[in-house]
Structure formats: C-alpha cells, structure tokens
Amino acid sequence: MVSLRIAPHPVLDAGAFVTEFPGTLGTLPASIEIARLLLPGASAQLASSDDVRKAVRDLLRHGGYKPTGRGKPSSEYLLAAVAEGSLPAINLAVDACNAVSYHSGLPISVVDLARAAEPFELAVQPTGTSYVFNASGQVIDVGGLLCLTDAVGPCANAVKDAQRTKTSGETLRTLSVVWGTHALPGRTAEVVRWYRTLLEGSGARTEEVTVRV
Q1: What average pLDDT score do residues 123-141 get?
Q2: Cα-only R_g, the chain
C-alpha cells in the first residue's frame, strides 16, 4: 500500500488515492461519460464557484506563493480551456482528473507510480525550488508552494505537475492528490468519492493510501 506523509499545514485538507487500470492507458478506450463532462455547459453533481476559487487561492498563499497569472491553480485553467473548447482528450487518468477538477473547482494532481518513488510527502517547498513541467523543458518555481514530493524531489502541485512523473501510454498505476482546503468543509471527501466512482465506472480499481502526519 502506498504511504503519504502530510506535513503540518493550517488549512490543507488533501485527499489521495491510488488507481490501478485494467491495462496500460494507451490501450484503454476513452470514456463517453467523462468526455461529456468536459463539454462546454455540461452539468455535474458538483460545481465550482467564486467562493471555491478564492478558498483554493488562499490555500496556496499560505507558504508565500502567489497564485496569479501563469501561476494560477490548474482548476482555473480548466475553466477557461473547457469554455473555449480547447481542452484535448489525453488518456483516461488525465481526462477523469480534468473533469472532476473542472466541475469541483479543486486542483488535482496525477502521477505515474512507476515514474515516482516513495517516500511521498505533501509539504511547502523552500525558496529556490523548481522543476520542469512540460516536454519543452519549461520550468516552474515552486518555492513557497505546497507540493507532492517523492524520493527525488517535488513532482506535483495544484498549479503544474512535473514532467518526470506524468502519465504516458504505458501507465498502469497512478497516485491522485486532491488539493482541498478546510475553508470548504466536506468538499474534499465529496470530490474524492465522485472521482473514484468515475474511474471505477470506467473499469479501474482504486484504493486508499496510508496517511501519516
């Protein structure tokens, strides 16, 4: 079972679970249900709001990070991309993540467990920390930002996940992290339940992670 340590934080209410897919992501068909959720105007059991967006930004500010401009939460990027019809399908893992994040307003990270190594931890990163976040080699400064770290270093956060642990067509198992906040009581648990139900409805198996503080 995957273990995750969560460093003390005044408002973080994270949710995490592991997903095992019935085959490599490159061999799995797209989900019609998930694709529908990513159409402009689609409705779902959860909906984002200005209050949710404010709470998420406040969560990220606690370490000194400024969640604005190109550094805004990934959930805000999804709102714009879906509205413009410019969000492409990628694979079952990423599409489910995007659909749940878009409707719930909570950022979500997904990492390939074959490309990451325990121990895993959620913690604010020190000044000067950075990593490459896309195939073009672009770098994000994650100093002061809550991140998921593995044995190598930070690999995901509520803004941009690291290129080195992103999913691919060969991915079989993933770790998902929902970046929730105690300012939105009960929302993280509701998001995790729905997220797992969507994945399981597409043939995947999900399991809890062991959380340590």
Answers
A1: 97
A2: 16
